[in-house]
Design brief:
Layout (H helix, E strand, L loop, with lengths): L4 H7 L1 H9 L13 H26 L3 H4 L5 H5 L5 H13 L5 H14 L12 H6 L3
Helix pairs in contact: 1-2, 6-7
Length: about 140
């Protein structure tokens, strides 16, 4: 697909100005006489750089036990401090279709009967980071 100079200037005015004006040119100050040695050195440098990236990535990866973790209603309820908060969570999950009406009623019944801590101990801030050994 050919593009006329007029169209190029209209679509990319700054690029056109650089191409026509001869600005931002990079001078060549030398010639490599041993291109193979330079290529080998560049490959070695890239390997070292890639190794550093892999080490960093390994440090920040989530452990396998949390990789596909998807919290359920009880996981959210364990973060609540009050019955009112738990009621709000149950209503929200039901409204969004995350839990059925029957399950919502079971949770509410347990909440009224046994309290918020009946779903388990409170999950504090950064709970999952602690579980993963990342915090």
């Amino acid at each position: 697909m050919a593009v006329s100079k007029k169209d190029l200037r209209k679509m990319f005015p700054n690029l056109y100005r650089e191409l026509e004006g001869g600005e931002n040119q990079v001078p060549i100050e030398g010639v490599c006489e041993n291109a193979e040695a330079v290529e080998r050195e560049a490959c070695e440098c890239e390997k070292v750089h890639q190794h550093e990236i892999e080490k960093t990535t390994q440090r920040i990866q989530m452990p396998d036990k949390l990789r596909s973790f998807n919290p359920e209603a009880v996981d959210f309820l364990r973060r609540c401090d009050t019955v009112e908060q738990a009621e709000e969570i149950i209503s929200y999950l039901q409204k969004k279709g995350e839990i059925t009406q029957e399950y919502a009623e079971e949770l509410r019944s347990q909440l009224r009967r046994d309290g918020v801590r009946s779903f388990g101990s409170k999950k504090e801030e950064n709970y999952y980071f602690h579980q993963a050994g990342m915090y």
